[in-house]
Amino acid sequence: PDDPNFVVDSERLLYTAHYPLGFSKADAQCGILLDEWTEILPTGQETTGLTFHYDRPSTEPPQVMLLVTPPNFVGAWQWDDLVAALHETLALAKQRAVEPAQLENTPLNRLLPATLMALTLREVSISGNLAINNVALEAVRRTVL
Questions:
Q1: 129 part of a folded domain
Q2: What is this structure's pTM?
Q3: E-strand spans in the chain?
Q4: Domain limits at 133?
Q5: Is there a contact between 116 and 36 (Cβ–Cβ < 8 Å)?
Q6: 13-72, pLDDT tens digit by residue?
Q7: Is residue 20 part of a domain?
Q8: Is residue 99 part of a domain?
Q9: pLDDT digits (tens, 9 = 90+) for 79-127
Q10: Are the C-beta atoms of 20 and 29 separated by less than 8 Å?
Q11: How far apart are the C-alpha atoms of 87 and 68, rounded to whole Å?
Q12: Peptide bond connecting 57 to the previous residue in cis, omega within 30 degrees of 0
């Protein structure tokens, strides 16, 4: 944050429940949870690292980046920890996989697939404020019209 005296006063939670017609809270329930976890930046400056493999320009860009932290930090990465993280990630991705046909006739069809992005009003985290695009569009409209 720009202000060194800024204090995060509380956490925020947005919770939306979508119930079917005839919902009864006494009946057995099941559901889906869409979640994200945004880290608060602890200081104005942090040392970080990022690496990626780069092939020739004709390759496709990555669809996802996986951030892995070692289970036990001993000063250097352990190869077995990296391999285990990749195996766990692949196993969890297979468990969560859903085909589009499974969603077509459900209320979730309007929501999924979804692109989620963090947005903060205060500069306490990495954020993507796409509403700024509306300001830019309005400026272009005023210039053209």
A1: yes
A2: 0.35
A3: none
A4: 79-104+112-143
A5: yes
A6: 667 777 778 888 888 877 776 666 666 666 666 677 777 776 666 656 666 778 888 888
A7: no
A8: yes
A9: 999 899 999 999 988 888 888 788 888 888 877 767 677 777 776 777 7
A10: no
A11: 12
A12: no
